[in-house]
Amino acid sequence: MIDVKNAPYAALGLRVSLGVLFLAHAGLKIFVFTPAGTAGFFGSLGLPGFLAYLTIVAEVAGGIALIAGFMTRWVSLALIPILAGAIIFVHAGNGWLFSNEGGGWEFPAFWAAALVIQSLLGDGAHAVGAPKFLTDTKTA
């Protein structure tokens, strides 16, 4: 049974938590590793360095959009490839547990699952939603 009184607030809590996580990871790439250092790391994985910059932009924009509740379903789905990339290119070889050396794929997989759940839940409470022209179903 779904508690319709509390479900919007549960979606809000999940949405804001996911958004803050993305901003924190973008901040790590910007302020600790630096964008150039992150691009170098991507290059060491055999990925084009420009993907690092796209990842940082996606994490910042996606994090802000999730916190605001802007097009939550689509933003949640759009961020999943970042976590899939983290699993495939960084964490898969380190085993399951994130406490393993180099961090296993447990946490990014859980994070991706949470994004799928958020996409199913929708915006939740206190969301800006989507622009009216994207949600208006009336035809002329």
List keywords for this structure.
mainly alpha; 68% helix; globular; 140 residues; single chain
DSSP summary: helix tally: 6
Mean pLDDT: 94
* Main beta-sheet strand count, sense and barrel state: none
First-residue to last-residue Cα separation? 39 Å
Could you tell me the radius of gyration in angstroms? 17 Å
The secondary-structure element order is HHHHHH
Structure class = mainly alpha
Shape: globular
Percentage of β-strand residues: under 5%
Counted up, domains total 1
Helix content: 55-70%
Structure, described:
The chain is mostly helical. Helices cover 68% and strands 0% of the residues. The longest helix is centred in the N-terminal third of the chain and has 26 residues. The N and C termini lie far apart (39 Å).
